[in-house]
Structure formats: structure tokens, C-alpha cells
Specification:
Spore Coat Polysaccharide Biosynthesis Protein SpsA, Chain A
């Protein structure tokens, strides 16, 4: 199952850093937050990544083209220009770097990966949010209902899309109730709502709800899926935190430095 990561936004709240690199390349503990997200998925056996590039996407390309250089000690023989890695890289990743345009909206970026997605279900998340969510559990959850998309719901500050649940609860699953989403609002005023934490599981039919490059995924597509009773929510009560501003960045870095990063589910 492919993992799509939205990594093309401008990151305007990080202008002091994003003047030179895209937001997903901002580092936590010396590694880009994008790397941390990929390590989460990899821990659960999902290693086929499609990075949806936009603003300064060449910086992400350069990182992966020089991955061994960035992540291992090297032995260089200047006589024959050979380079040998002195320590084994543990990642078994396949990484597709897809240019989707600087001004393309989130839905449009996903739509541009249609040929890569094909007819298989896929995973999707944002390039700026960390969690200790169990990816295998949310996939199992998704496969057990008849919807087109599963969204992970979290309960922190009300900064993202609010999820209004139907009263029609479905049977319990691993001590978490499976709920049909009745409404989805991108900018909630009530901070007690479950909110969109990313970490989606999608059927390829979701692409039919995205019109063009100007479509924001969190607006019309998700709202229409909710109206058609095709959008379900997986409740995640564990750790989730976005890197939305400099304060978030400091908070996440401090957790990593103290070796108290809940999202570090890998060994």
C-alpha cells in the first residue's frame, strides 16, 4: 500500500526557515520532520512512499538523492572516486518524488498522483504532523467498514477541520467506536470537536471527488463524502501534534532531546 505525503505547502508561519527550504524539511533532532513521518509508517511495514512536492521541492529531491551522504559515515577513495558507506542504512524505502506545482491545492496534489495510485487503496497524511497512531489498526478499521475514506480524529486545540459525528454508532472495534462522519468543517469555532489529524486511509474512488488542481481536499471532497455517508473516523486518543509554528517546533524538538518523543515508535 502506497503512502502519499503532502509536502508542497509554503509554510508561511516559518518564513525564517522556509525561505531556504520547504516546511517538511525543517528538522527535529537533526532530521527533517518528513523523515520522522516516514519512520512511523515504516515501523508498520509501509515503505512505498509518494512525496507530493511543490514549494522548493528540489530540496526534498536533493535530500533523498544524497540520502547515504546525509545518514552514514563514508569512506572516499580519491584515486578512483569510489564512495563506500561504513554503516548500514536500515530504511528499505521506495520513494517517488512527484512534482505537483507550487500553487496546487491539497486535493489537486493528490489528484496528480492518480496514475501512481492506480486501483489500490492508499495511505495519506500531511508532511508536518507527528503521532503515535498505530497504522495497522487504522488500516484494519478502514477495511471493516464500507466507506471510501477513514480520517483519524484527534482532540487537541481546535486549529484544524472539525468532525461532527453521526449518532449512528457502528459496533466497537479494539475498544474504539467506529463512527460515520455526519459533517466536516475546515475552520471550527468549537474547540471540543474531534479534529482532522491526517493519517488517512483512502479507497481510490476518493479521486472522483477531486475536481482539479484548485480543489482543497479538506473542503468540498471531504464534505461531500460525509454527505454521502462514505467518510468514517478512527478515534486516536494518543499523542498527535502538528508543527504549525515556531512554538510547535520548539515543543517537538524539546521532546526529542529529552528522549520523550511519543511518535518514536521505531527502534
Amino acid at each position: 500500500m502506497k503512502v502519499l505525503i503532502l509536502a508542497g505547502g509554503f509554510g508561511v508561519r516559518f518564513s525564517e526557515q522556509t525561505n531556504s527550504k520547504p516546511k517538511p524539511m525543517i528538522e527535529i533532532g537533526g532530521k527533517p520532520i518528513l523523515w520522522h513521518i516516514m519512520k512511523i509508517y515504516s515501523q508498520y511495514g509501509f515503505n512505498d512512499f509518494v512525496i507530493l512536492l511543490g514549494y522548493k521541492g528540489y530540496k526534498i529531491k536533493e535530500f533523498f538523492l544524497n540520502y547515504n551522504l546525509h545518514n552514514s559515515s563514508l569512506q572516499i577513495d580519491t584515486n578512483n572516486s569510489s564512495v563506500k558507506s561504513l554503516n548500514k542504512i536500515n530504511e528499505n524505502w521506495r520513494v517517488t518524488l512527484l512534482d505537483t506545482g507550487e500553487d496546487t491545492m491539497t486535493g489537486g496534489r493528490i489528484k496528480k498522483a492518480q496514475n501512481i495510485i492506480g486501483k489500490e487503496n492508499f495511505l495519506l497524511t500531511y508532511g508536518d504532523g507527528l503521532s503515535n497512531i498505530n497504522i495497522k489498526k487504522i488500516v484494519k478499521f478502514h477495511n471493516a467498514h464500507k466507506g471510501i475514506i477513514t480520517i483519524s480524529g484527534v482532540l487537541p486545540k481546535g486549529r484544524f477541520g472539525a468532525i461532527d459525528l453521526s449518532n449512528n454508532k457502528v459496533k466497537s472495534f479494539n475498544n474504539k467506536s467506529r463512527n460515520l462522519v455526519k459533517d466536516f468543517r475546515e475552520k471550527p469555532s468549537n474547540k471540543n470537536f474531534w479534529i482532522n489529524g491526517g493519517f488517512f486511509v483512502c479507497n481510490p474512488e476518493v479521486l472522483n471527488y477531486i475536481k482539479d488542481s484548485n480543489t482543497t481536499f479538506e473542503e468540498e471532497p471531504l464534505q461531500n463524502l460525509a454527505k454521502k455517508k462514505k467518510l468514517y473516523m478512527y478515534r486516536h486518543k494518543g499523542f498527535w501534534h502538528p508543527m504549525d509554528n515556531s512554538s510547535d517546533h520548539k515543543f517537538l524538538n524539546d521532546l526529542w532531546k529529552k528522549k520523550k518523543a511519543p511518535w518514536k515508535v521505531w527502534k
